[in-house]
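Section 5.1 Outputs to date
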Amino acid sequence: MLNELSVRFNQFWLECWALVEALTLCELALIMWPFVFLSVPRYILSEIIVLAMIFKPEPPEKVRFRQYLAHKKPLVSILLPGFNEAETLETTVLSLREQSYPNLEIIVVNDGSSDGMDAIGRRLARRGWVRYFEHRQRGGKSSAENFAANAARGEFMVICDADSTFDRHSVWHLLVEFYDPEVQAVAGNLRVRNAGTNLLTRCQAIQYLFGIGVGRRASAAAGTLSIVSGAFGALRSSIVRQIGGWEAGPGEDGDLTTKICLAGGKIGFAPKAMCMTDAPDNWWGYFRQQLRWNRSVVRFRIRKYSGIFNPFSRSFNSRNLLGALDEVIFEVIFAISLPIYVVWMLMNHADMFWQVTFLVTILYVFVNIFHYLIALAVSERPHLDLPMFPYLPLYGLFTGLYLRTVRLIAYADEYLFKRSYWETYVPEYVQEQSRKYDSW
């Protein structure tokens, strides 16, 4: 049996090699067009930007602003909304209390929890560790964030999830990025805390390393970053109040940062502001999370804020356009290209379909290895990222096949049925108001 499989594989490999020899480089590139014209340019562009940043000296304005922060120490309000976070709330608060930045207030908002989070919140308040508020009825994360923002007294706000932990200097690193007066929000760097649990969490650890550790670093440098994750980031309090805070989600964090960009603000990235968060460790949970996240691309980019693409719209400017195009081209169009490419191959090159598929898979492995080496060179957690190397071949299948399929389902579901307006992540009565007032 093994000998037969070995013979078949050798024969298949010889067929692949014969195909490479029979075609010119140009012909081969045209046959592999999604890989050559969509994947490779994005990898190359992000890596060039990230490598250039390694040798770029710190601007003097940033040095001066760091000195200003050390002297003035403006108050920072940490917004900690939570729903049924009894198990993790105290650990997160302890992590925040260990921050080296000295002038913090932690605002906990219990969004109608039923797991005993109220007792823990009150106990932490009695100790003087937090300012604690609670909603008797669940209103959704946006409602809790807006309540916390209204109670905040700081010049800056830090948003985070109640199940995350942070490095001691993370708040400092977030604040320093506000040295540029145009920067109105700063995204923190996320890592998967439970990466060693199983294959799924390891693939997500690589996804965070590539998409956040490299991708957001490059986007911020290019001035096109348009997202601050709700898991960890910072905002100027003035801009939050100016734009009216958070609207009902899901995708409320992307919605907020889009409004910041439309108001003329830039989004920064603080690679050293580390946040450790748990990723879904089962495929169903991950599938639902990705559906929720990717529906937001259609809801906001294609529907609600479509004026970004209209040169005659008041919300149009080149920076917002480039940021939106980056998301639409390399997420929506890249996902849609998969079924189009498969059909095109079967109609025009069915005789070499499996050989080309195999070659593209091998090329993705090598590209991912190169991308991984770049990510490792700039990583703030190389000891966490090194063990992920053996899983790079599987990661190509994970993103190239599974994740792209999930995204296609999410995009079609949202475009045809507007499913995000019925997402149970947000209470039904809140979603009803969202459906009534949101742009359709």
